[in-house]
Amino acid sequence: MQRAPDANMTWAEWFHGRRALITGGLGFIGSNLARRLVALGAQVRIVDAALPGSGANPHNLDGLEHQVEAWRADLRNGEVVTAMLIGQDVLFNLAAQVGHLASMEDPVTDLAINASCQLAIVEACRRVAPEIRVVHTATRQFYGRTSGEPTDETHPIAPVDYNGVSKRAGELYHLVAHQVYGLRATSLRLTNTYGPRMRCRDGRQTFLGEWVRCLLKDEPLLVYGDGMQVRDLNHVDDVVTALLATAASSDTIGQAYNLGGREPIRLVDLAGLMIGLAGRGRIAHVPFPGARRRIEIGDYLGDYTRIATTIGWQPTIDLRAGLRGTLDFFETQREHYL
Amino acid sequence: MQRAPDANMTWAEWFHGRRALITGGLGFIGSNLARRLVALGAQVRIVDAALPGSGANPHNLDGLEHQVEAWRADLRNGEVVTAMLIGQDVLFNLAAQVGHLASMEDPVTDLAINASCQLAIVEACRRVAPEIRVVHTATRQFYGRTSGEPTDETHPIAPVDYNGVSKRAGELYHLVAHQVYGLRATSLRLTNTYGPRMRCRDGRQTFLGEWVRCLLKDEPLLVYGDGMQVRDLNHVDDVVTALLATAASSDTIGQAYNLGGREPIRLVDLAGLMIGLAGRGRIAHVPFPGARRRIEIGDYLGDYTRIATTIGWQPTIDLRAGLRGTLDFFETQREHYL
User: Fold this and answer.
1) Is the ipTM of this complex over 0.90?
2) Which residues, 6+ apart, have CB-to-CB distance to B185 below 8 Å?
3) Nearest CA distance, B146 vs chain A (angstrom)
4) CA distance readout (Å), A247 to A78, A87, A105, A174, A243
């Protein structure tokens, strides 16, 4: 039975010996989280379907083969959902279809993974793991076009693509299950996350991964249009800290929180920064593909005051250092990620 | 090819000869809409799966057997969705799982009908009927607990049950498809609707139907708790007018609108009014069943200024007259509805 950490226990200590389940654990954020949990002494189970086009990469857990219980299984199978939860203390719910363009091309799969599976998970929690602590991951994308003003959690939800619809439904299932059944769930709304183990083969997970690939393969970094949109970014290590600190705090239960970055940057400047750090590369401006233009959100800057106030989380890794480390990682691991 | 009515054409005239499709057309609102459309000279096709527990009642279309093309078919079948749309000018999208308690008991079906089917519909419109005019019906329920202040369309969406999650997703699919593909869709957020042809066998569709049944069967009208919650009500004829006027106005495309009533009333007073009009009956206060209490929204009063300003709709049927006519209808038709 899990308890909130008492006054003499840090959240890091709270995870020692705890059983933690990560959906999407072979993916970018999930695998970084698994590594940190193992280091904290948690018993980690990951579940991942390793779907083509997803962030799953078997090398993401290299070296942890004997320390993580890995299930290759699809959450669209209800029996998997029930079985995976039994005996777990904490669920980090990271499995998702995150591609915006992909959601427009295959909206049925997008809805199945981001809403139907999430419903199955909260219902299964109610039945077989009613005390489990759940940290769900959502996205700032469903705020839609925010005009770039700092966006807090009270901003209207106005998704511009099908992915925003399904991700919002998945978040709401968690929040309703909290209200009605007392599910101990929190939702974190992530912004652009980057760092080691992100998908670099293409831009399906993040444009940053694609840019890393272009740098390493001496191809130009494609910038759609003028690239003047402002975005905020989080290093994956800061996101992992947010996931852990949220799980260990009962003050966050039943709420949704933005994450966010401290150093907003225009996309074209970000490309320039990466080129500078890599010591090579160039930018190619290309017209916005129509399908992307129609779902483009423009400037975005997340206001993360709520989580900072509640549990003291804030991003700590500066963009320059974070990108430098990311490039170094992929330089040495290129055969596994390109 | 449909056009907005010109300055010399009323919206009623606009429907003459037009091909109108109604999903859920055997149900309460759908059948009343079908009747009005036939009277306006439209060519009406209805599609209804007549699922057990739904509002479908074959007697709802009594007398129209030769004037309405009726398909008994399930929207969860993608081929039905595509086929039904071909050649249609207007879609009134009324098929839904509307039960709040039912959504908690069978959330998978609720999601399938209210979100997955709606996604299939907007995607099929894009492919086979890109010019079709769509009026989707949503619910004020997804505003959640509003504290009874007049609630307009900018109120945060905070559903208290799974039905609110799925209905919101269904609405958002329409609005996103408008933004991305130009789907000519409008969403109306209905409040409590009452009138002839509502489901009276039980409270699955509306508590008002159940109260009518109790009156006609000389059973007490059950009021949960003190019944002091304020609600607004719309007579189905006013709702049908809103659906038609919305479809005929291109000014409403891409928007969502509240309907709402002019005479907010406490539930216990509503029960008393119905007893007075019927000249018989009694109230029995009973404790709130736990499952209902957990999803109860409290006071609600919809602000319908936006639709009033845009197309001039407002409710016209006063509650007393509307209830009187409703009771008369079910008195004479009791063998078909009880």
Assistant:
1) yes
2) B122, B134, B135, B136, B174, B175, B177, B178, B253, B254
3) 15
4) 24, 17, 34, 14, 6
Find, in chain B, the residue whose alpha carbon is nearest to that of A294.
Answer: B180
Q: What tokens were used for B238? A: 């006013």
CA–chain centroid gap for A256, Å, is: 14
Give me the domains of chain B, ranges plus CATH numbers. 11-194+234-261+303-316 (3.40.50.720)
Helix ranges (H only) for B106-194 are 107-111, 117-128, 162-181
Alpha-carbon gap: B124 to the closest alpha carbon of chain A (Å): 12
Distance (Å, whole) CA A71 – CA A40: 21
pLDDT digit string, tens, across residues B280-330: 999 999 999 988 899 899 999 999 999 999 999 999 999 999 999 999 999
Residue A147 is encoded by which pair of tokens? 């005009």
252-311 in A: which are within 8 Å (CB) of B?
294-295
Q: What is the pLDDT of residues A286-295, one digit of tens each?
A: 999 988 899 8
Does A116 lie at the interface with B, CB-CB under 8 angstroms?
A: yes
Going by C-alpha positions, the residue among B3, B86, B2 that lies closest to residue B45 is B86
A161 contacts chain B (CB < 8 A): yes
- Which of A107, A120, A179 faces B119 most closely, judged by CB atoms? A107
